[in-house]
Amino acid sequence: MPPKAKAMAPKKVHNSQSDGMVLLCKDNVLNNSGDTTPNIMKLRHPHSNQAALFLVNADHTRIQEIVTFNEENRSWFIDENVRSDGKLHLATTVNPLYLALPYLINATTLSPLDQTLIDREFPETRHLLKCLTPKLLSLVADRKGDEDMNVWKYNEDKTVTWLSNKVNQVMRLLEEKHIHANEDGVAMSSTFVKTKADTDVIRNKGKGYQNQSMN
């Protein structure tokens, strides 16, 4: 049976990528800033190097990746309307440094940041500028020249340290939540993880039962 969704008061979001979608996100992300509205745009994903949808708030200071969950034969009941597209889109916060890092790494010359972020295939990459504060950029790059020039040079040592800290934070959180990840990177509760020791115990018990039945 299609899921029922209660429609909230509509908020205008500029979306040139779709004629509409069911999107779950924090309400304050959709707040307008004067005449400016939040914007859904296509940017280059740093992992796949392919297009991905992102939601940028009205003042362009926060960015969220839009993750899509899709199953066949699904639709939405919204108030008195039926929406045949049953996809569910979820906006999750993303650190803009991840999106800017490939551009900093691949920069061949020292240029102002607005020029470093030029991507003819994804022209809306320029909207990352307000998200990238000097405090953030200093974690992966070194400032060159005067502040008003906004020129940054990629620093590999800083980046490795920053990424290592991120990995350690995730590891600590997974341990606290008793969540394990298999070889494919799929997370699962430790309740459902069978260790080699558990397997050996089961195997030995099985042998014991077999010996008893044969005696």
From TrEMBL:
The keyword Repeat does not apply. Keywords: Nucleus. It is found in: Nucleus. It comes from the Eukaryota. CDD domains: RNase_H2-B. Residues 33-95 form the Rnh202 triple barrel domain. GO terms for cellular component: nucleoplasm; ribonuclease H2 complex. Coiled coil: none annotated. Pfam families: RNase_H2-Ydr279, Ydr279_N. Belongs to the RNase H2 subunit B family. The RNase H2 complex is a heterotrimer composed of the catalytic subunit RNASEH2A and the non-catalytic subunits RNASEH2B and RNASEH2C. This is Ribonuclease H2 subunit B. It comes from Cacopsylla melanoneura.
